Amino acid sequence: MMANICSGSLIITALVVGALSAWGDESARTTAYPVFGILQVHPDLQRTEFALSADETFEAIRERRLIYTGDGKWLRAVRDAKNRLGCDVPVIVYMGGFTTNYGGATEVETAYRGAVAMIDVTTLAESINAQTTDVTVKMPADGECPIVASTADITDARDKRKYCFWLRVDDEMMKVLEVDEKTGRLRVERGFESAAAPHEAGATVFAPVYLGDRTQPTKYRSSNSWPGGRDYIRYALDPRADDAQRYKADLIIALMKTGYDGAWLDTFQPRPFNLCDPLGSKIIYFWDFRTGQRYDWDSYRTGLQEFLRGVRRKVKEAMGREPYLGANSVSGSYPRGGKLLFSAPDRPGLLDAYCFEDSYIRPTGGKRPDGKLDVTFDPIPLRRWLNVQRGERDAALSGLRALCMIGPAGYVSADINPSLENYEQLICFSWCSYLLTVTRERTTYFGLPLLITKLGDRVGFLPLPDLCYYSIGDPVDNGDTASFKLPGQDCYMRRFTNGLVVVNPSDEAASVELPDGYVEPESNTPVKQVELSAGDGLLLPRAKR
Predict the structure, then answer these.
(1) What is the C-alpha radius of gyration for the chain, rounded to an integer number of angstroms?
(2) Cis link prior to 329 (omega < 30° from 0)?
(3) What is the spatial distance between Cα 353 and Cα 432, in angstroms, rounded to a whole number?
(4) Is the pLDDT of residue 221 over 90?
(5) How far apart are CA 140 and CA 125, in angstroms?
């Protein structure tokens, strides 16, 4: 990536991040601000055989303040190397935050059925006694019966056609055996993990909540996991249910016993993501049995706080120590209450770290017919960039552990690698954008994939970009995001003790006048003006004295 740097009447073309030597002695290779990572394998290495060997290969993990991904061969290797090397970096395991993952539906049905979130789908059309097995429910106005029949006694993680389906009426659960989709007539099993009881006509009928949205069956960042959907069954969890807290705590306890430090909770936010009813129809909030109505933004956020504290309590009772709990994504909810899920002195026991996903770049594209991703990345739009900046800046000023992930916080991040034509630009734009939000206390972390890739004739971890090590120093300008905006431009500038950051988050190139005292990195030539392309960033060192 190149930028035009103007020095008086002389225009020279230089790398925007310049030479490492321009920033002083970098022999210690300590990042200027904290970096964390999601462990991923480069797409070219996926489904191939390779090995990571020798502890020097794993020295790269010392550069990260937090590492996570799904439990598997390579995260276990990182966990074990971390313990051998004596690193204090938490290594935690990705899992559904308010959902089950692969195999979880079976586990829940076996021992934690009360964990499953439920949605009010209809009512009883007629009263039933404790022995009735033929039940009629009221058909919705759209004529679609929101109930399906079980195809197995318990959901089979290996065969999505085999699943269990049940209803809840008052405090009783009923397994559904047959359904007449035209009349709403059901045959059910009574006393199904609960006591059979009589129920009045008009009683609310609840059904499980799943993941998915049938209007977007091929969306690559969604799971279509209702009965008959594309993927295996996945349930949403009710955060206030003791079974949900016990289920998640037991998963974390088992992981910590093997040497992990805790869990990364996916899409953990006050507005649930990608939920649906048994037919795949999109829903937002489900039933709160404590209040007798559906959750809303505030009650669900409070429920998530209860969930976190309940999980922590159960883990600590079993392990004698606290789990490290991280989560994504707070990006859209931060100003409306997502902030209140961070642990803080006045609200302990919540999240140790919370991720702003897609902080600076976003994926475009999707899945090819062969199932592989065909994804590119571009800077996020200016309006979204401003919202993220405000949230990350506030989190830094509040001393919160905000995780500023460059892009996606899941498997799509493996495609953020040097094979992208605009990789250098994306990295510079993202790092410079992050620096606009930091404080000297360095409580917030910048997120990049910890990528296993080919390094010449061996396989190792992709080194961090050099600009992460440039000793730019502490911020000098300490206002809010708006205070960094240049008059008459959609460009932002911030001074540090050892350098200057300029970011152009707009969709148009800009000519930026610079204050005195900053130089082109390689020649130490004073710089008065830069031509910055759209979606780009620039670091310049202070002139040497």
Answers:
(1) 26
(2) yes
(3) 21
(4) no
(5) 11
Is residue 523 situated within a structural domain?
yes
What's residue 383's pLDDT? 96
SS3 24: coil
Cβ atoms < 10 Å from Cβ of 511: 12
Residue type, 193: E
Q: What CA–CA distance (Å, rounded) separates 538 from 152? A: 59
| Residue 498 belongs to a domain | yes
Residue 19, in any domain of the structure? yes
If one counts the domains in the chain, the total is 1
Domain that holds residue 22: 1-26+482-545
Strand ranges inside 161-236, DSSP E: 166-169, 172-180, 185-189, 204-208, 210-211
Domain containing residue 22: CATH number: 2.60.40
Residue 407 identity (one-letter amino acid): G
pLDDT, average across residues 437-450: 98
**458, 479 in Cβ contact below 8 A?**
no
Q: Residue 2 falls within a domain, yes or no?
A: yes
Structure letter (DSSP) for residue 518: B
**Residue 530, φ and ψ in degrees, nearest 5:** -130, 145
Q: Tens of pLDDT along 362-404?
A: 998 765 555 566 789 999 999 999 999 999 999 999 999 999 9
Record the pTM. Answer: 0.92
Dmax (CA) of the chain? 92
215: tokens are 């209007």
